[in-house]
Each structure stands twice: as structure tokens, then as C-alpha cells.
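Reviewer 2 asked us to include a model.

Predict the structure of this chain.
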Amino acid sequence: MKITLDHFKRFEKQIILKKIGISGQKKILSSNVLVVGVGGLGCPLITYLAASGVGKIGIVDFDKIEISNLNRQTLFGTSDLGKFKVVQAKKYINKLNKNVEIVTYKKRLTSKNVKNIFRKFDIICDGTDNFNTRYLINDYCKKNKKILISAAISKFDGHLLKFNFKKKGPCYRCFMPEIPNIENNCQTEGIFSPVAGIIGSLQTNEVLKTILNYKHDLTNQILIFDALKTEFRKSKISINRNCINRC
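Predicted model (C-alpha cells):
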């Protein structure tokens, strides 16, 4: 990947950072990332990935935009109501950075299509809102040694986790071996809109650190954010010897 004058002008504020520079920006421009879920997390995530110069972004979602999405899903406006999220997200990102290749998958992720979609990407970002899909994403990434950066939000709280399955370690099932009796998500519990922006931005942060191969990341850890107390805390995720993935 060659850095052109247009690249330099656009990404100047990143390039002048000593820990990025020309070589780091080349890595970002050459990278590819898949985002599953274009909701409260996916919107800021996709925006900052594109703004940072990630060369190829895949987006998976089968939903249409509803008015209740607009308090936190910042890629959309009232004129987008009733339209498919992936279609409108691509239009927005093309305006933000026309050089990003946006690949859309207007479909529900299933065990039948996950291989065909995921095999084209190195880093997988999970922004979904149900455990069955999270397990599906986790299991595929574990089996195929992908890097998984997963996030979840509900009410005033947010979680962020990273698993580098290129190395031996725990998986999402080690952290959450069974589906809870009550599934907490924005639909059932509500969401404080800044939490989506904060966690989605932090998810981007982990993606970029992964692309740039920074050592201080969240691998095998969970970051928990409490918006009411404005507090962060981190906890290590350990291997569960009873995990069905035999971690």
C-alpha cells in the first residue's frame, strides 16, 4: 500500500503520531474488518473505522431502521426510516470516505452463511444483541483462528471483550457458558444513548490497536463501563475447562 499525497493530507493527524506514522497508516489502509450488527455499537464503530482509513469494511444486518433506533444509531436520520440499515450505512460512509470498500450483507447471520461471510475478513467485531448469534460468531472465530472483538450494552452499562484465537486462551463461552434466563439488551432493558457511543468508540480503539499490533490491548479481558458512576474496570477472562470448545 502506497501512501499518496491525498492520504497524507487526510490522515495527517494520525501519521504525525509517533506510534502510527507512515508505516502504521499503511497497515490501517490495508486492513479489513467485519462488523456484525449496525446498531448502537455498529454505528460509531463503522464511522471511526472509515474515518481512520480502514481499507475494507464488511457490515452484516438484516434490520430496517425504526424511529426508536435514532436516539443512539448515529448513521441514520428520520429520512432513513423503513430502509435497510446496511444500505443507508454504506451511503453515509461513502460520503465520509469514498475510498473505503464497503461490503454489505443484508441478511441474518446463520450457521449456513457464516463461513462464506467471515472467511473474507481478518478481524470480526460483534455488536449483536442476542446470545445465540454471539455464540455462533464466537464458535466460528475460535475454530478458524480469527480475532474477535465483542461488545454489548444495556441500560447504563457497557462491556467490551477481545479474543485473539490465533493464540491459545479462553473464548466467549468460557465467560458466558449458558444463556441467562433474562436476556438483557436495548430492546428489553432500554439504553442510555452515550453508552453506545462510548463502547462503540472503544471497540474501534481495540480494532486499530490490533491492526497496529500494540501490546497493551484487551486480549482475554473484559472492560466494564458504568455510565452513572463514570467508572471503568477490567477483569481477566480465564479458560473454563468445561467449555464445549475445549479451550
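The radius of gyration is 17 Å. The first strand starts at residue 32 and ends at 36. We have added this to the supplementary material.
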